[in-house]
Design brief:
Elements: E1 3-6, E2 9-12, E3 17-23, E4 26-31, E5 34-43, H1 50-60, E6 65-69, H2 76-87, E7 91-98, E8 103-111, E9 116-124, H3 129-138, E10 141-142, E11 148-153, E12 156-161, E13 165-172, E14 175-183, H4 186-189, E15 198-206, H5 209-212, H6 218-225, E16 236-239, E17 242-249, H7 253-257, E18 262-270, E19 277-284, H8 290-299, E20 301-302
Helix pairs in contact: 2-3
Length: 303
C-alpha cells in the first residue's frame, strides 16, 4: 500500500488510490477517476474548537447535509481507528455528510502537542468503503515535529531538516521538482517561502535516464539542463554515475561586503533501478554542510 507524506502529514492508502490534486496543505485522492478521500490541514495557535470548525465546514458545503456525530453513530471499524489516533494524542470529532449524489464520513483532527489541525473525509460509494476509510484514517500521522521531516509522493521518498518550509512543486511526466525554503531568521520566516534571505533546497527526478544520457555524460547533462543550477565556474567532482559540487558562487562586491554570499552545493546520481536521475541541491545565504547534504541524499530514493 502506498504511503503519501506531504508537508508534515501522512497516510497509507490502497494501491489503486492516487493523488488527483496536490496543494501545500491538501491532498485529494481518487480511484480510477472516482473521488475517495480529501485531506486538508494547517497549524493553529492556542485552543481549537471542533464545534466552530464544523460550523465553518457546514457553511462552505451548503449543498450537503453535514453534521457532527458522536462515535456511537459511526461504524465500529471507524471507532477503532479513532481510538488508535487518540492513543497517539490526537483529538477528534467525527462527522457525516450526504448530498443527492454522494455520502461520506470524516473527522476533524487536532494534535495539541504540535498545533496541527486536519480535516479528512471519505466518499462512501459502497458499504465496504467504510472499512477501507477506517483503515486509512488509522494510518494518519503527524510528522510535523522532529529533527527531520519525511515526505513521500509519486514513488519518491525523502527527508528534510526541520525548519525548511515547502515552497513550490511540480510533477510533470519525466520531471518532478520539489522546492523547500529555509529562512535566515525569525523575521524572515514571517515572509512567504522564497521571499527575503534564506536557502533553497531542491529535490528533482529526471527520467528516463537512458534516453537523457544517450550520447553524453551526467556532468555535461547537468550543466546543460539544470535550471538555476550551479554557476559555470563551479567545479564538479565526478565519478561513475555520481556528480557533486560545493562552493560559493561569485557575486557582487556589495553582496560580499554584506556577507550575503550565495553558497551552492549538490549531488546528482543515476539510480541503480528505476532508470532515473536524482538530484539534490541547496543554494542560498545559509550553507548546507557536506555531512547534512549526504544525509539528505541518502534518504532520497525511489520506492
Amino acid at each position: 500500500m502506498p504511503r503519501f507524506v506531504w508537508n508534515g502529514v501522512g497516510l497509507t492508502a490502497p494501491d489503486n488510490w492516487e493523488p488527483a490534486a496536490i496543494e501545500r496543505d491538501g491532498l485529494f485522492l481518487e480511484s480510477d477517476g472516482v473521488p475517495v478521500c480529501e485531506l486538508k490541514w494547517n497549524s493553529v495557535q492556542g485552543s481549537f474548537s471542533f464545534e466552530k470548525h464544523l460550523k465553518r465546514l457546514t457553511k462552505s458545503h451548503k449543498q450537503a447535509d453535514l453534521r457532527g456525530v458522536p462515535e456511537s453513530e459511526t461504524p465500529e471499524v471507524w471507532q477503532a481507528s479513532l481510538a488508535s489516533l487518540a492513543e497517539s494524542g490526537i483529538r477528534h470529532q467525527s462527522f457525516i455528510w450526504q448530498t443527492e449524489v454522494h455520502r461520506g464520513i470524516g473527522a476533524a483532527l487536532h494534535n495539541p502537542a504540535t498545533g496541527l489541525a486536519a480535516l479528512v473525509q471519505f466518499f462512501i460509494h459502497r458499504k465496504d468503503d467504510e472499512a477501507v476509510a477506517a483503515e486509512v484514517l488509522a494510518s494518519f500521522r503527524d510528522h510535523s515535529a522532529g529533527k527531520t521531516i519525511p515526505w513521500a509522493m509519486f514513488g519518491l521518498t525523502g527527508r528534510i531538516p526541520t525548519g525548511f518550509q515547502l515552497h513550490t512543486f511540480t510533477f510533470q511526466p519525466g520531471h518532478y521538482t520539489i522546492k523547500y525554503w529555509l529562512p535566515k531568521s525569525v523575521r524572515q520566516a514571517k515572509l512567504p517561502p522564497g521571499k527575503g534571505a534564506g536557502t533553497t533546497l531542491i529535490f528533482e527526478r529526471f527520467a528516463p535516464a537512458s534516453v537523457l544520457l544517450n550520447g553524453t555524460d551526467l556532468e555535461a547533462w547537468l550543466r546543460a539542463n539544470l535550471k538555476d543550477g550551479p554557476s559555470e565556474e563551479m567545479p564538479f567532482a565526478s565519478s561513475p554515475g555520481l556528480v557533486s559540487w560545493e562552493g560559493v558562487s561569485k557575486g557582487s562586491l556589495l553582496r560580499r561586503a554584506l556577507r550575503r554570499e550565495v553558497h551552492s552545493s549538490g549531488r546528482a546520481w543515476v539510480t541503480d533501478t528505476g532508470n532515473s536521475i536524482l538530484s539534490v541541491r541547496a543554494s542560498g545565504v545559509i550553507p548546507v554542510d557536506e555531512r547534512q547534504l549526504i544525509d539528505i541524499c541518502e534518504a532520497y530514493e525511489l520506492v
